[in-house]
Design goal:
about 220 residues; 3-stranded antiparallel sheet; Muramoyl-pentapeptide Carboxypeptidase, domain 2; alpha+beta; 4-stranded antiparallel sheet
Length: about 220
């Protein structure tokens, strides 16, 4: 009897996710980010209605964003090589570029909504955006804590950190999730319209069991 109840609960959960996915697939993505809040979602069934293969252009699309699959070690390898050429400034540049993408996404969200977001809407949008990106391969989101002026995000997997370890260089002495951190930094700063500071305090590439971002504004 207990097993039946558990199975029924799982099926109901999946059905609810399918309904959400269908709602998301029929309308512009950014506008929906304040209509449906995705709390505790860890099932990729959510993105079924969002990811499509464009047969005409031979491209994989996440709504209006083209997804190009790459080996997880390609980006870390390029970054490591760049660091060997120009030093620590490589990290600064990559985080800056990723931050600009996050800022641009925040700008598009605000333009789609047509006004400044309330604190509750900011929390909802951030939760939805980070949940969906993790469902698309950024890593398994284990914790997302949003407060009045801070954000804590933890992942138990990371394509950047794990890709770095695959290079065979051993554990890194510093965090390696440059792209993910920069993007989140820009997205948060753009949505709250305040200067955001933060850092990656734990990283799988350093031997930690999670990658942890801590931001405040």
């Amino acid at each position: 009897m207990v097993a039946v109840v558990v199975i029924r609960g799982e099926l109901l959960g999946r059905l609810k996710l399918l309904v959400v996915a269908r709602r998301l697939s029929g309308r512009p993505l950014f506008r929906l980010l304040t209509e449906v809040e995705l709390k505790g979602v860890k099932d990729r069934i959510l993105v079924w209605g969002l990811v499509k293969f464009d047969k005409k252009r031979w491209k994989l699309q996440f709504r209006d964003i083209t997804i190009a699959p790459l080996h997880d070690y390609l980006l870390p390898s390029m970054i490591a090589d760049l660091e060997s050429q120009i030093g620590p400034v490589a990290r600064t540049l990559i985080i800056r570029y990723a931050k600009n993408v996050g800022l641009d996404d925040a700008k598009q969200i605000k333009e789609a909504i047509g006004r400044e977001l309330s604190p509750d809407e900011v929390k909802m949008v951030l939760r939805n955006m980070l949940t969906m990106w993790c469902l698309l391969g950024w890593g398994k989101l284990e914790r997302l804590e949003l407060g009045e002026n801070y954000l804590i995000a933890e992942r138990s997997t990371s394509f950047e950190a794990e890709g770095y370890l695959r290079l065979g260089k051993g554990f890194s002495k510093a965090p390696r999730c440059y792209v993910a951190f920069g993007y989140v930094l820009g997205l948060v700063e753009g949505l709250v319209s305040k200067k955001v500071d933060g850092k990656e305090t734990k990283c799988i590439a350093m031997g930690d069991d999670i990658c942890r971002f801590e931001l405040n504004w």
